[in-house]
Design a protein that fits this description.
By secondary structure, the protein is of the alpha/beta class. Among the domains are: 1-140 and 469-535, Rossmann fold; 185-350, no CATH class. It is built from 19 helices and 15 strands. The protein is elongated and about 145 Å long.
């Protein structure tokens, strides 16, 4: 359940801390005080679309933070597993969710301090809170949502049947698509076989093995290093020997020139002893250069550089990259593609009449699909009768004693038989008065009636609902008097098994609350400030009195006390 909600710089709210309890929590206040902003803030926490218009004037951003206690959450293990898969842990079963929206429209969402996507936020929200806002009341007018409400009421049995139906429907669609593909092109199998034969031959001839790519890259690296080294040694040898170092070259190199210089100095030194030292040095250099050239030539002869191997390696790498572009990101995926292609080729060769087999398979799957669809339809019809009876009882409690509520099933046309939801179009039908035929909700339901029908549905569904916190934003729209009191009792009933938050402008609902909060706004130093205060006993009486009569006169206060007492 929700333990604490902090809101900062959000629309007209500067800084508000809201700490609801278990049971029925009612939020009231003057028009424009920002009551529904509490619900809007929780919606942001649960992944609703952010808007820069939510940021309070002259503030760089707005911030919303909520703390949830997961101790009694029925699906706690499932939620914990979801969070842990994203690297999020919860200490003492506490979950901190925050959302910050900046004036440029960007937002950051965090769960227990870790940034998360809005999709994860929405997934987490489905475990924690169910918000019923004013737009949700309008949702019951949309017949597309009626199947969802019925399935929610039907529970696990219908969920399993629908999942089975969905799996069979997908299998059926795939078979139909394959049949259509083959039938639309008579030479499909021949072209498919030709393609598969090409694939099997191309990948098979290449015969790449796992790990070979790494070996090829390492070999190329070594060959490139050897080639670079050989190039340097050859250039040095050419400098020493002249020309390109090959036999028969007439170019003179440094070694020959130095040897010539040593011989000339030796000839001079033979006639003039003062040059003997220079002659000896020149002779030593000449011998060193000759030895260096000889060593370099020996290294070049011994070096493991094979231009042919380099060419084959590059060709092999190029072939691998070509196959990766066609069949997979690595050798493992390429070989998997080969296996699948070889298997399909074998199946084509072994089953000449594939089209006939697919048609037989379609008939088989269609029978299963139809049987499952009929079973799902029967389960829904049984659930529909129970749902109708339950909602009629709820509506009687909500001052609609003569209401008729039906779940209508219309078998779909054969051309549109199998939809994603089943073989029936499902719609709720309603009549508020005796003698009137039950008709579509959108045709006859008023705002007040829609609110009560929605509350009746929510109450029936809440009996099997695992969501711990339910939020109702002005569920009392369009109702007053006895109907308001009936709605208050119904909310009180729901709150026996859930934490309920309700934004209200009705005295009866405020009187039924276990905890009352009041939002008020006033001006401080030229700025509008909104406060959210938990009301004590006297303040609660005064607020119920205000909602009753607009003031706190003696008679109004007395009536407020009596109204509060009636719900105890």
């Amino acid at each position: 359940m929700l333990l604490r909600l902090e809101i900062r710089d959000f629309a007209v709210i500067s800084n508000v801390v809201f700490e609801p309890s278990y049971g029925l929590n009612c939020i009231s206040g003057e028009t424009g005080a920002g009551k529904s902003l509490i619900v809007d803030a929780i919606s942001l926490i649960l992944g609703a679309k952010a808007s820069k218009t939510l940021v309070r004037s002259n503030s760089p951003s707005c911030y919303v933070e909520a703390c949830f206690d997961m101790t009694d959450l029925k699906n706690r293990d499932e939620l914990t597993a979801m969070l842990e898969s994203q690297g999020i842990t919860s200490e003492e079963d506490m979950l901190m969710i925050s959302r910050q929206i900046y004036v440029n429209g960007k937002s950051i969402a965090r769960i227990n301090g870790i940034s998360v996507t809005l999709q994860l936020l929405k997934d987490v929200a489905s475990f924690l809170v169910d918000i019923h806002g004013q737009h949700d009341t309008q949702r019951i007018f949309d017949e597309k949502s009626h199947c969802y409400y019925l399935d929610s009421y039907g529970g696990e049995k219908i969920t399993k049947l629908h999942n089975k139906y969905t799996e069979l429907l997908e299998e059926y669609k795939q078979i139909v698509l394959r049949i259509k593909g083959i039938s639309s092109s008579p030479d499909f199998l021949d072209r498919r076989r030709e393609y598969l034969e090409f694939v099997v031959k191309e990948i098979g001839d290449a015969a790449f093995k796992d790990g070979e790519e790494e070996e090829l890259i390492e070999t190329r690296k070594k060959l490139q290093q050897n080639e670079s080294t050989a190039s340097v040694l050859s250039e040095v040898l050419s400098v020493l020997e002249g020309g390109d170092g090959s036999e028969g070259s007439t170019s003179q190199g440094a070694a020959s020139d130095t040897a010539f210089a040593a011989r000339e100095l030796a000839r001079v030194a033979s006639s003039d002893a003062s040059y003997k030292s220079l002659s000896a040095r020149a002779n030593a250099i000449a011998l060193d250069l000759e030895a260096l050239a000889s060593d370099l030539a020996g290294l070049l002869d011994e070096m493991n550089y094979d231009p042919e191997l380099r060419a084959k390696t590059e060709e092999r790498i190029g072939l691998l990259y070509d196959l990766k572009g066609k069949y997979g990101k690595d050798i493992a995926e390429i070989n998997e593609f080969y296996e699948r292609s070889a298997k399909e080729l074998s199946e084509i060769d072994a089953n000449k009449d594939l089209l006939s087999e697919l048609k037989s398979k379609r008939v088989e799957v269609e029978k299963k699909l139809l049987a499952c669809a009929e079973e799902l339809s029967s389960a829904r019809k049984a659930a529909g009768k129970k749902l109708s009876a339950s909602i009629v009882r709820e509506l009687a409690d909500l001052e609609m004693p003569n209401a008729v509520f039906e779940v209508d099933f219309v078998r779909r046309e054969k051309t549109k038989f199998f939809s994603s939801s089943g073989i029936d179009d499902i719609a709720f039908r309603f009549s508020a008065n005796p003698g009137q035929e039950a008709r579509a909700l959108s045709a006859i339901v008023s705002g007040g009636e829609a609110s009560r029908i929605m509350l009746a549905i929510k109450n029936v569904l809440s009996m099997s609902d695992n969501t711990p916190t339910l939020i109702f934003d002005e569920i009392d729209t369009g109702v007053s008097g006895k109907a308001s009191a009936a709605i208050a009792k119904k909310l009180k009933s729901i709150a026996e098994g859930h934490q309920v938050l309700c934004v209200t402008h009705t005295a009866q609902i405020a009187a039924a609350a276990d905890c009352n909060f009041m939002l008020s706004k006033h001006v401080v130093s030229g700025n509008t400030v909104t406060e959210c205060n938990l009301l004590d006993t006297d303040a609660r009486v005064n607020e119920v009195s205000r909602l009753l009569s607009g003031g706190s006169g003696e008679s109004s206060v007395k009536l407020a006390k009596e109204l509060i007492q009636s719900f105890l």
